[in-house]
Amino acid sequence: MGCSFLYIFQVPFYFVVPTGQACHVSAHIYILTKKTDDKGGGIIAIKQTINQKIYRPDIHSKRIPVTNIGSRMVRTKELSDFQRGTVIGCHLSNKSVRQISALLELPRSTVSAVIVKWKRLGATTAQPRSGRPHKLTELDRRVLKHVARTNRPSSVATLTTEFQTASGSKVSTRTVRRELREMGFHGRAAAHKPKITKSGLQAVTVADDIKEKVKLDLPKVKGQLLIFGATNWDLIGRKEVPKAQAAFRNLGQNLWGPHRYGSLSDVQVSSVVSGPCAAHSLLITTEGKLWSWGRNEKGQLGHGDTKRLEAPKLIEALADEVVVAAACGRNHTLALTEGGTAYSFGENKLGQLGQGNQTDAVLSPAPIQYNGQPLVKVACGAEFSMVVDCKGNLYSFGCPEYGQLGHNSDGKFIARAQRIEFDCETIARRVAIFMEKSKDGQVTPVPNVVVRDVACGGNHTLILDSQKRVFSWGFGGYGRLGHTEQKDEMVPRLVKLFDFPGRGASQIYTGYQCSFTVNEMGGLFFWGVTNTSRESTMYPKAVQDLCGWKVRSLACGKSSIVIAADDSTISWGPSPTFGELCWSHMWHIKKLINYTTPRTSTSGFFTHGMI
Q1: Where are the RCC repeats (predicted)?
Q2: Is 376 exposed, middle or buried, given 0-12, 13-18 or 19+ CB atoms closer than 10 A?
Q3: Rounded CA gap, 367 and 347, in Å?
């Protein structure tokens, strides 16, 4: 036979052999030249036109090998498409597996596997089905590009792990490698392995295990606790008291003015804590002791039982700890000690306690499952939790519904009998991706986000970073995210109003369905809704009635707002009210009205009108 040449300059392409057989091998451009002569024949040259590398055999030997193709390629456990195509080309030249193995210096098992796969699929690589959607979404591709840029140099396995952590998508290293190549990233093997001595390895290991030591301070406030509003804890937020609490049906009353607890007459209070969806409350004394009272159906008071408490009681399990901060969810509680350790207790059906499991309830405080840097902030939504470490990293755990955990997923999956359930996070998982979205939907990752503060509503979250920017994500109903639309956000999205010089935020607060921010100039901004029968505010708007007031503290209930500004207390909200506005009657306050608290100035307060 004479010489057969085939030049192909478009994809997909085929190798054509003298017998007329053809095989689809890859989406690259190669030239295969086959020559039969008196020395026995065989492949005489293989040319890869992409980088113009030519591998020539030793034409003086009886056996004509291609010079060490395996060693010249990228050092990887997988064969390249070029190598697989070469194997099939040799196979179609009527060479045996043993001859191909010796010729290309590849294991026989590898050669056999390539040939078997080609016979089964008709190609050396699995081809996508017609109409099959792309594995990665456009947002996933942007996340992968951001991960690759911020983790140079790294192996494909490391990048795959980082990408899966950031996006929540499960992909193979092959998919990641292909996507990176399409983006213009190229890898190479190291020239030589670095020499690691025993002392050097020990130094690296010790350095990785070093954790910073912190000692958090209590708020520098010494005051007395005042309470007003509804105190029938088992009825708050419900139409009727559950049967299990029927004995307490008539207990608790609405307090239309400020009252004090007699048991706290000698107790100096540093801060008081509750939440927009909680029916229990906490206070922290100037000595760092944590007290709790209110609803206790899931052990959220931390006393080892489920009995409701009408008055504050010291949590004995934390008596030896100095508690500096705390947060309340619907039926669970987080407490933060001065050493940066977080304790959790209460309901845990959705993993909101972060203790590595999903149990009905934990009645006594226990540390969350976390091995990172010391924590400095804690916050709770209805059924999820957020913590911030001393490096500014944000972690979340609990129910992922509406994307409220910030991991680019709502966690939904169909269980038995077509029932929808959620893949909950039971341990603290870092929120790795923050993004900005343009009006046309273009998504851009935002790098270098160092979290300084976090606040949670019922199903949404706000954070404030070191550059005074505000991000929000979670349930987007009623405009509570401030992005001019009601779409849920699965990852933290930048609120653009505060991303300008001189317009940064200094404080953030969240209600059940609304959000507040105080900017650098002291102006108060609001978005969301406090009354679902009224029009929603879809983006941050200045609260004009409070222009000129210096806001020091703000708290949101289900629909009522109370503010400490200058030396006064200001409250408003829609009817019906139950005394939480402290106006001694059941008015629906349509406009802000200034009310100065007699005999004392307020230092701060939380939900249920807790001052």
Answers
A1: 288-339, 340-391, 392-467, 468-521
A2: buried
A3: 15
Residue 419 and residue 415: Cα distance in Å, rounded?
A: 5
Looking at the chain, how many residues does it have? Answer: 611
> How many other CB atoms are there within 10 angstroms of residue 379's CB atom?
26
Contact 580, 229 (CB under 8 A): yes
- Computed over every residue of the chain, the mean pLDDT equals 79
Which structure tokens are listed for 24? Answer: 């689809």
Q: Is the dihedral of CA 267, 610, 581, 279 positive or negative?
A: negative
Q: How many contiguous H segments (helices) and E segments (strands) does the chain have?
A: 8, 36
Local structure of residue 401 (DSSP, 8 states): G
H or E element, residue 198: helix 198-209
What distance in Å separates the CA atoms of residue 111 and residue 101, rounded to the nearest whole number? 7
Distance between CA atoms of residues 574 and 534, nearest Å? 10
**pTM of the model as a whole:** 0.67
SS3 93: coil
- Report how far residue 307's alpha carbon sits from residue 342's, in angstroms, rounded to the nearest whole number: 24
In 504-558, the DSSP E strands lie at 505-510, 514-519, 524-528, 537-542, 551-556
Measured distance CA(547)–CA(404) in Å, rounded = 32
Which residues share a beta bridge with 23?
A: 15
Query: What is the domain class of 326-595 according to CATH?
Result: mainly beta
**Residue 134 dihedral angles phi and psi, to the nearest 5°:** -65, 140
Q: Please enumerate in sequence order all residues whose Cβ is within 8 A of that of 139, keeping only pairs 6 or more positions apart, or say none.
A: 167, 408, 435, 443
What pLDDT shows up at residue 490?
A: 95
Specify the pairing of strand 394-398 against strand 435-437.
Answer: unpaired
How buried is 18 (Cβ within 10 angstroms: 0-12 exposed, 13-18 middle, 19+ buried)?
A: middle
Query: In whole angstroms, how far apart are CA 291 and each of 231, 309, 325, 564?
Result: 17, 11, 12, 23
Instruction: Give the pairing of strands 568-573 and 269-273.
Output: unpaired
In the chain, CATH 2.130.10.30 covers 326-595
Which residue blocks in 57-190 are alpha helix, DSSP H? 69-72, 81-91, 97-104, 108-121, 138-150, 156-167, 173-183
Quick one: DSSP state of residue 481?
T
Query: What pLDDT shows up at residue 142?
Result: 85
- What string of H, E and C letters represents the secondary structure of 235-283? CCCCCCCCHHHHHHCCCCCEEEEEECCHHHCCCCEEEEECCCCCCEEEE
Return the half-sphere exposure (C-beta side, CA atoms, 13 A cut-off) of residue 6: 16
Weakly modelled stretches of the chain, pLDDT under 70: 1-77, 126-134, 188-209, 243-251, 417, 584-611
- 417-469: pLDDT as tens digits: 678 889 999 999 999 999 999 988 899 999 999 999 999 999 999 999 999 99
Per-residue pLDDT, 559:
85
pLDDT digits (tens, 9 = 90+) for 289-343: 999 999 999 999 999 999 999 999 999 999 999 999 999 999 999 999 999 999 9
